[in-house]
Amino acid sequence: MASVGSHASKPLKAVSDERDPFARISSSSSSSSPSSSSSVFYKLLVIRSVNAYWLLTFFQPDEYFQALEPAWQRAFGDASAAWLTWEWRLQLRSSLHPALFAAVYWIADAFTRLIPSALAVQLRPSILIAAPKVLQVVSAAASDWYAWQLAAKLYGLNSTSSWFALFLSICSPFQWFCSTRTFSNSLETTLTIMALYYWPWELFGEREAVKENPKASVLSRLSSHPSSSSTGLRLINSLRFSLILAAFAVVLRPTNLLLWLTILITTLITSSSKPSAINRTVLLELTREVILCGSLVLTVSLISDRLWFGEWTFPPYTWLYFNISRSLAVFYGRNDWHYYLSQGIPLLSIAALPFVLAALYRIPKAGSRAPDLALRTLAAAVYAMITALSLISHKEVRFIYPLLPILHVLAASYAAAFFTRPAPNRASAASSEPASRPQFRRKGLLTAALALNISLAAFLSLGHQPAPLNVLTFLRREFERLHPAEAQALPPFTAEDQDRRDAEEVELFALFLTPCHSTPWRSHLVHPALHARALTCEPPLHTSPDTPERDSYRDEADRFYDDPVGFLGRELWPSQKEWSDGEAVRPERIPRFIVGFEGIEPWLDEFFARGPGAGFGVHLKRVWEGWNGFFNEDWRRRGKLVVWDTGVYAD
Fold it and tell me: What DSSP state is assigned to residue 471?
């Protein structure tokens, strides 16, 4: 493949650069125009802002319950009515991720206090809901930008391949669907591609000076870069910055360690003058840097967790213990061993899949030792992570999301060669004249692929499962209409506020009879006085793996769908005789609204019209219903999401 400013080469091969690979890699960033790179980044910010604004659908509950709910509690206090899941109670998650959003909430709340009170009451909920998206816009734009910059390092600054890497990232439906969501996987992806960009790929080069002195250390080799001493210092700092970013990614998601072990091992092997042995000095130097940078990040993480949880703890260890030793991850689903091969990579890649598969089957070449070995190392990281994660029973596509920018960088060479032909003329390397642009070909296929990606991204962002977010907007606005005084209350909220509300027997505003975590929670309900209740799905923490007790365990949501009418009569609203003697819990208050998917309506009618709840005076009336997509893999979530007014409260 040929690109802008390169000689033509064999089809489907990356561009060869005649310059020294060390000079090309180390100078790619500095030689680029700062204003040009900044211009691209600003445009990416605009694109991802549109992305975030038009992302109006629900994907997976961890987006809210592993990030925004703990952040909400930290920002607004224990009485803010945030829903903390069992992972936070048992300290399985690092506090670093929600701490970022807690700071965003604090800043957004401080901003609303500067607005006139009458206007602040109306704007505050919208501002608080939108605030986390600002952080995600920056993260998503950085992910795109660093993927482009890494491709520029490996293929050449203005090569067609580097621009195709940016094009693939911007037009990726999965990137559009997930990059601006508040998953820890999204931040992990950004940190990973940033760390890969700053990783000193010069370690993979082989210079005559190294051959003459094979015992030279890694840092000595970087420091002796011929350009200048400042260049060597910059490369050393780049290594350390890369390791720090990688360490933060590992703290967020311990499985990210698989990728970096591959990078480190490959670096050690290929940086040795003898491929069959690992240079002892190289090993010592890299080990020292890994320990120093890792210790710095670990110290920050430990202090953050100490301040967050109130005691010394190490969430990555707890996470591994519960998910691997206790096998609790499989409680949320099992998948076939080939899931990431048959579904994961295709879902990540969509229209780029042929080029991704081609790049993984035959790793592209950049034409020089250092970039070629870097591309092989990136491919090895993909192989290693897919292989290791395939051995774990519980699998999700977002677990391999950090591989997506890597796949874009690898596939860019093949995509560029397929859709472009070499420029007819090329300026000489010494010429200051701009190189001719490549000519596009197969425009029909390119248009079709782009249309497929755009259509899929639009559907997933606007049309697939929008109801879980829309229903909370309806409930929040109804609460503001019915209880304007309580809706104007501002944080911080104290334990005394919560005790007062409990003593006053405030109404149960909404009862969610849905599979657990089917909607966001306080991050979208906002008002702590809006009392709501939902079915839970706590895992069987008290059981051991592969025991009859574990296999027969049914959480609260399971019990409801096993026997809906019986569950309502036994666990939510038992008769006076059943709970007055202390053998059962006190019944829930009758809610103002019941929220559920339309499939439960016959069960509600049976319970309240002809069953044990016939004497409660409930007369269900649909007051809101929301479209939730054409399909859902969970039969319990199929159909419209509905809000029924029970009729037991006067407006």
Answer: H
